[in-house]
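Comment on this:
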Amino acid sequence: MVGAHYLCRPMPSLYHLLQPVLFRLDAEKAHHLTMGTLQNLADIPPAHDLMKKMWQGDDQHLSRQVFGLTFKNPIGLAAGFDKNAQYIRELALLGFGYIEIGTLTPRPQIGNPKPRLFRLPEDRALINRMGFNNEGVDAAVRRLEILNRPEGLILGGNIGKNKDTPNEKAVEDYLICLKKLKPWVDYFVVNVSSPNTPGLRELQDKEPLRRLLLTLQEENQKHGRVRPLLLKIAPDLEHSQLNDIVEISAEAKLAGLVATNTTISRDPLVTEATTWQEIGAGGLSGAPLRERSNDVLGYLSKHCPANMPLIGVGGIDSPASAREKFANGASLIQVYSGLIFAGPQLVKSIKTDLRLHPVTN
């Protein structure tokens, strides 16, 4: 997923002035254009300092200890935004406590045909069918090797399989990514829940999932410091499937769960049906996902072991919607689509709200 064309405004009001113009551009092209601009601005000391002053600002009251890691604040950038670890330094200026790169696959792949990312402004939502487009894990590792990581920033690695790898061999793809990324990231997220790689969600079935997670955890335990291993799940699962995931996660000694990925549902949408029907297949994210992701998160918080933290994702576009995630049991949250509609001040506004109304999850 991409869509960062909202990031480069020096003043809050300018974003709202530019948004109608930016939304006329193809979202994927706008992402690359704007991120390139942000990179250039970050190289100019006065602009770098201005962005840092505008959007950063943490204190000890925002710090969290979760699965053995110290997060300077609980707000992260979800996977899909910086698939290839290209923009970590620049995105850190927006004030995130952690950034999750990927989804990465062993070999580069171009993803699905374009256009593949669509905005639904009336719903403050996106539909994407990117298809794990990325440059491959080796390219990301090369960038991480030379990265001057911003102080205190936690990095996560979201890993998947190549489209042409059959499910019976999927474990091998995930192992390759885990081994190569392990020296450079602080935690892993296993992505079996994207709706945009054919057959991928079949890996959420009980036996394939058990085999995958137990194998990855066995490898994770072998060499060097063990990384927290998490699983990202779909919002479209029944309670019986969630129960299976809770059971397997405990058996595999996962550090936590990420709830949720995008949904294949189109309910509820206020956008005309003809519009989204013309767009076609893809995962829906943004405000319409909020209630369903909260339901899944709340169910997991009641049924998971007490020592298994949850990361809440889906529909966060305001301090109030962030607070819903914490109320449903999240220890950490991640944002993505909400940034496109609320702008980069979203992270700062959530942090301000957390200072005024601390949560204890």
User: Anything to note?
Assistant: Confidence is low (pLDDT under 50) at residues 1-13. The chain is about 40% helix and 15% strand. The chain has one domain: 12-356.
